[in-house]
Amino acid sequence: MPYLLLALTMPVAAGSQQTLPEDLVAFIQDYESCEHFSGEEPYDAERRAFLNEQIEQSCTGLEAQRSALSQRYAGQAELLQHLHDHPPL
After folding, report:
1. How far apart are CA 76 and CA 23, in angstroms?
2. What are 53-84's pLDDT values in tens digits?
3. Which own/partner contact pairs does 12-16 have at CB distance under 8 Å and 24+ positions apart?
4. FRET pair for 49, CA 20 to 30 Å: which of 2, 35, 38, 41?
5. Mean pLDDT, residues 8-18
6. Is residue 31 included in any domain, yes or no?
């Protein structure tokens, strides 16, 4: 995860000094956590409970977040590209 955070704090585009807004970073982190935990194997009851908790925490509300971010950053193609790079799960 440290590599993800580093990548998300880098400039949005070459030559740009803009970094990703915190709400967009939070969306991407939740999205990637949701995707990760959704693909994990629940090999026993304890693991299943853990995965369900993580999925509930990271996946809930992702599409509502996407919609709000799409509206908030309408007209800012560099930022919207990050949403397009993370399609609905």
Report:
1. 15
2. 999 999 999 999 999 999 999 999 999 999 99
3. 12/78, 12/79, 13/78, 16/78
4. 2
5. 47
6. yes
Residue 36 identity (one-letter amino acid): H
Residue 49 lies in a domain: yes
Give the dihedral sign, CA 8/54/80/25: negative
Which two three-digit tokens encode residue 76?
A: 């800012």
55 occurs within a structural domain: yes
Per the structure, the complete domain to which residue 75 belongs is given by 21-84
Does 61 map to a domain? yes
pTM of the full predicted structure?
0.76
Q: What is the DSSP letter of 85?
A: T
Classified as helix, coil or strand, 33 is: helix
Q: Are 34 and 52 in contact (CB under 8 A)?
A: no
Average pLDDT over residues 4-12: 47
Q: Which residues contact 55 (CB under 8 A, 6 or more apart)?
A: 34, 37, 38
